[in-house]
Structure formats: C-alpha cells, structure tokens
Design a protein that fits this description.
By secondary structure, the chain is an alpha+beta fold. Helix content is about 35%, strand content about 35%. The chain has four helices and 21 strands. It has a six-stranded antiparallel β-barrel. Strands 4-11-9-6 form a four-stranded antiparallel beta sheet, with no helix packed on it. A four-stranded antiparallel beta sheet has the order 8-7-5-10, with no helix packed on it. Mean pLDDT is about 85; it is low at about 15-25.
C-alpha cells in the first residue's frame, strides 16, 4: 500500500510539473536570437540571381566537306582574330575538283576569245562584200550618167541604157540587203557573246564555290575573340556539318542570370541591373527574358554597359540584381526565417522594454533580396525576431533574458 501510494503521488507530481511547464512562458537569451528593426522609407525592389557571362557574339565552325583533321594549330582558351587558323583539314577529292573546275573555266575563257576573233572575221567579210557592192554601184551610176548624155545622139541604144539603169537598181537592193545582213549578224554575235558570258559566269561561280570549300579546309576563326571549344582530334574523319570549334567574343559579353519564377514576373525588358564579378560591378539592363522555366527558375539575359573589368570573360560565374521598382514610404524589415512575399506569418514581436516577445500575425508584401515589405502587423521602430522560432510557436509569448 505504501509503495502504490508513493508511485501515485509521484505520477501526480510529474503530471502537475508538465502542465505547468507547458503553460509557462519559455525564457530565451537575447544573444541567441536574431532580431531586426522595422524601418520606413523608399523600398527598392530588387530581384537577385546568379549565373554566368556569355559571349554576345558566337561563331560555330563546321565542316563543309568530308575530310580528315590534318593538324590543330590552336586550342581552347587561345585569343584569336578573324584570320587566325585554328586547324587544317585534308580532302584529296576536293583538291582534284578545284583543279578540274579551274581547267574548265580556263577552257571557257579560251572559247570566248576564239568566238570574239571569229565574229571579227565575219564582220570583216561583210564589210568587204559591202565595199565591193558599193564600188559596183558607183560604176553603174557613172555609166548611167555617161549613157544619159549619149542616148540623145544615138550612140547608145535605149535598151542598153535601160539595162544599165536596171543594174543600178539591182546593186542598190543588194547593198541594202547586205547592210541588213550585217546588222543582223551583229545582233546574233551580241546574243552569242551574252550566252557565252553567262556560261562563263556559271563556271566562275562553280569554281568559286569549290575553291571556297577548299580554302575552308584551313579553318579560320572568323571572329575576334577566344576559342571556346574544340571537340575534335588529329586524324579524326569529319563529314559535312560536323562541329569543329566554337569562337566567342571577349570584349562584348552578356550575362545570363537565373532567377526564381515567382520573381521573374516582375521583370521587364530594359530594367536596370548590376552584375558582380567578385571584384568589380558592372551596370547592365535587361535584354531578354527566356520564356522557358527550368527547375523553377527563369533565365534573364542582361546587356552589359560601359567598360568591362579585366576579369570579365565568357563562362565566368556572376551574381546580379535587377532593379524592378521603388515603393515610396514603405515599411520593411530583414526577411525572417520562412517568411515569403505576399503571405502572412506569425512572428514574435518584442515589447518596448524588450523583456518579452509576443507572437503576432504579420502580413508581408514584396520580397527584395533579404529584405521584405510589411503590409500589416508591425510599426516603424518595432523589433521582431527573425530567427527560426518553430519550436516555440506553441507559446504565445516568450521571455527575453539579457
């Protein structure tokens, strides 16, 4: 009986102690808590993000023919100019095609020159024929004039005189026909020369195309910048369209920031921003907003303004802030643990003497970096506890010890 009575009394004592401890206010040392003061003023809304720098201008170098990598002149990281040769390819069939195209073009030029000489010869023949007819016509006209004076004296018969006049008319017609044939010959020659020139132009284009493909066996950068990638090796066989190298600009860069999707909705084209390269800050502005959401984040492309720092280069990791808007005369505070934009949360707010903290529902607004706007539930100058207080949310009030 004494043992049972003792156990019962002990259980009652433990239960009473537990109830009183639950209902009592916990005591927390002030130095173990993080507090923040509610401030009022112009609240700059900024969206933070992280990402990398990227070349604003890039050039992909691809193979134009089936070839073999003969030699590699430069490797990734090398500074290049437009004329820098990165690698050399070899294609014996293409070399033979260049020779054949050059010979065919030379043959066409030779035929064209031969055609011009032939045309000149034909025109000379026509000129000679016209000159001969003109001479005969002049002789016939002189004969008509002479017989005209002699016919009245009976020296020349009327029949002979008419024959002479007929000869003049016939020579005149033949001369007109020769002039017409000469004009038509010139027109035909011009058309033939035009066709020959068009044919030569086609062979020139064909030669230029093949020759350009041959020249591209010496792969040049084509852009002032840096060689970024070179995914091939010496001796490798490549087909048309194979990626040989990537060249990017180093003086003209853009920044790609990854920001949270719920914050990206506030961002617009042209908004100002700043980029930190871990040593320098660069002014920028929003250039493009990627419509695709990846892992809850959106890529924002920023155009860098002004002179770039010396450490700026493609693929450099950076952080950035985008200036979205400014809220005038707003209440704001350092972001408490697990407090989110446009949501309410129970937060412990310190009393004026800072000896107690009362659990208070606070409505939050826009989040900017590690600072958040207060819409309702706190006043300027008040202090709130921003530490993680999840384990004390069963208590409505806590005591603060110095």
């Amino acid at each position: 009986k004494f043992v049972v009575a003792g156990i019962t009394a002990l259980l009652m004592l433990v239960s009473f102690w537990g109830v009183t401890s639950i209902n009592s206010n916990p005591k927390l040392p002030i130095n173990a808590l993080r507090t923040a003061v509610v401030k009022q003023g112009d609240f700059n809304v900024k969206v933070d993000g992280y990402g990398r720098l990227r070349a604003k201008h890039q050039r992909l170098l691809t193979s134009q023919s089936q070839a073999i990598v003969e030699s590699i002149q430069l490797y990734p990281g090398a500074i290049v100019t437009k004329e820098s040769i990165i690698l050399i390819l070899s294609d014996p069939r293409l070399e033979q095609e260049v020779v054949n195209a050059r010979l065919e073009l030379a043959r066409q030029h030779a035929q064209f020159k031969e055609q011009i000489i032939s045309h000149k010869s034909q025109l000379l023949e026509r000129d000679a024929q016209i000159a001969l007819l003109k001479s005969d016509l002049e002789n016939a006209q002189l004969r008509v004039e002479a017989e005209q004076k002699l016919i009245d004296k009976g020296i020349v018969s009327a029949l002979d005189f008419k024959r002479t006049q007929l000869n003049v008319r016939q020579l005149t017609q033949r001369l007109d026909i020769e002039y017409l044939r000469q004009a038509q010959l010139k027109e035909m020659q011009q058309e033939r020369l035009k066709i020959s020139k068009d044919l030569i132009t086609q062979f020139e284009l064909n030669f230029d195309t093949i020759n350009n493909r041959f020249n591209r066996l010496s792969v040049r950068a084509g852009l002032d910048g840096v060689l970024q990638t070179l995914p091939i090796e010496i001796g490798q066989s490549v087909v048309p369209g194979t990626l040989l190298a990537t060249v990017g600009s180093i003086k003209q860069l853009v920044a790609e920031l990854r920001v949270q999707q719920n914050q990206a909705d506030q961002i617009g084209i042209g908004m100002p921003a700043t980029i930190s390269t871990f040593g320098a800050k660069i002014m920028a502005k929003v250039l493009r907003i990627d419509p695709v959401v990846t892992d809850g984040r959106v890529i924002i492309e920023l155009d860098l303004l002004g002179e770039l720092p010396t450490n700026a280069r493609p693929d450099l990791t950076v952080e950035g802030q985008i200036q979205v808007k400014q809220i005038t005369n707003a209440l704001y505070v350092e972001q408490p643990q697990d407090a989110y934009s446009f949501k309410s949360k129970d937060i412990f707010k310190l009393s004026l003497d800072e000896k107690t903290a009362l659990l208070t529902a606070i409505e939050f607004g826009t989040l900017s970096g590690n600072t958040i706007e207060i819409i309702n539930g706190a006043q300027v100058g008040e202090k709130i506890i921003i530490s993680d207080m999840t384990q004390w949310h069963s208590a409505k009030q806590v005591l603060i010890t110095k």
